[in-house]
TrEMBL record:
UniProt name for this protein: Sn-glycerol-3-phosphate import ATP-binding protein UgpC
Gene source species: Sulfitobacter pontiacus
Signal peptide as annotated in the record: none
Gene Ontology CC annotation, any one: ATP-binding cassette (ABC) transporter complex, substrate-binding subunit-containing
Gene3D superfamilies named among the record's database cross-references: 2.40.50.100, Nucleic acid-binding proteins (2.40.50.140), P-loop containing nucleotide triphosphate hydrolases (3.40.50.300)
Length: 359
């Protein structure tokens, strides 16, 4: 297990980058705590896999250092970093049995035969392949092969870190849930430092102690699922986390008031003068329909009943605003206003969250 430090780290796939836009991975400075589980979350192309491959040693960074427990491993090959990595698509030895595939990393390091047998049986149980141990990997389905890859990544107990690059892409939905649960259980049992790359917020939020949200090659927020939901530090975090994501509206902010499309909104807190593009971010959970004169005038476009609650899609001057209403809530035709709970309103300048005065 290891604390992982990213020191002035950045990477460009161009031989002579001349501007920040040339970097697939913008400058990062972070410490990832020994023994915690992290999820790298973001849209395709945001730099998640690039960062993971730098940590594993498959890619050398254009600048900066990677440290494991304060030891510089930037120039060390993967074999010297003592990590296990599971890739998006299965990598197995087709001519070997499932048992031998799982045992290979242990036998390759000279582990005792009795320990190998015990550990292989344990991991086979975790991935649901106990009855397939004597089958050759050739001919197995893609999701079965990926379970072997996951098992081989988890079989060693002495690794510095376990790295997962979207490992459940080819796994069927029911098995995805089971394997995520088992990965979390493994983490609690053995305390490995785990880094899990995904574009799926459900995978990230259910797996990780800390979620690292990436956007356009940089980390825009690292925090617990609750922190990401309640105080998104960047508008992308608010948009990407949640279903539906945060409502983001252009605004003018003066003190404790905001004006959106000519309508005044109470913010509940005062803000210093702001420069640049100013926006309000309000999650649908802090938004409600109302009648009367207060709030923003809207037109309800449709109502989606998703079982646990209703999602109301409303239009305000050409911008969609989403509202989450309780399953049993009555939505009448005269509900043509939207009101925000001040406790759930976030203010952003140039996409970054601004803390209220006195906070």
């Amino acid at each position: 297990m290891a604390k992982i430090t990213l020191d002035n780290l950045a990477h460009s796939y161009l031989p002579n980058p001349t501007s920040e836009d040339d970097f697939a991975l913008k400058e990062l400075n972070h410490d990832w705590v020994d023994g915690e589980a992290y999820a790298l979350l973001g849209a395709s192309g945001c730099g998640k896999s690039t960062l993971l491959n730098i940590i594993s040693g498959l890619l050398h960074p254009s600048q900066g250092r990677i440290l494991f427990n304060d030891r510089d491993v930037t120039n060390d090959p993967t074999t010297k970093r003592n990590i296990a990595q599971v890739f998006q698509f299965p990598v197995v030895y087709d001519t070997m049995t499932v048992r031998d595939n799982l045992a290979f990393p242990l036998r390759n390091r000279g582990a005792d035969a009795a320990y190998v047998a015990q550990r292989v049986q344990q991991i086979a149980g975790m991935i649901g392949m106990e009855d397939m141990l004597n089958r050759k990997a050739r001919g197995l389905t893609a999701d079965a092969k990926q379970k072997i890859s996951l098992g081989r990544g988890m079989v060693r107990e002495d690794v510095n870190a376990l790295l997962f690059d979207e490992p459940l892409t080819v796994i069927d939905p029911h098995m995805k849930w089971e394997l995520r649960t088992q990965l979390k259980s493994l983490h609690h049992e053995f305390g490995h430092t785990m880094i899990y790359v995904t574009h799926d917020q459900t995978e990230a939020l259910t797996f990780a102690d800390k979620v690292v949200v990436m956007y356009d090659g940089r980390v825009v927020q690292m925090g617990t699922p609750q922190e990401l939901f309640e105080t998104p530090q960047h508008t992308f975090v608010g948009y990407f986390i949640g279903s539906p994501g945060m409502n983001v509206l252009d605004a003018t902010v003066t003190g404790d008031k905001a004006v959106i499309g000519g309508h005044e909104i109470d913010l509940g807190h005062g803000f210093a003068p702001l420069d640049g593009k100013v926006e309000l971010g309000v999650r649908p959970e802090f938004t409600r329909l109302a009648t009367g004169e207060a709030g923003l005038p809207v037109t309800i476009k449709r109502i989606e009943d998703v079982g646990r609650h209703k999602i109301v899609r409303a239009d305000f001057n050409g911008s969609e605003i989403n509202v989450i209403a309780e399953e049993g809530a009555e939505i009448s035709p005269d509900m043509n206003r939207i009101v925000f709970d001040p406790a759930g309103v976030n203010v952003y300048a140039n996409s970054w969250r601004v803390a209220p005065q006195g906070a």
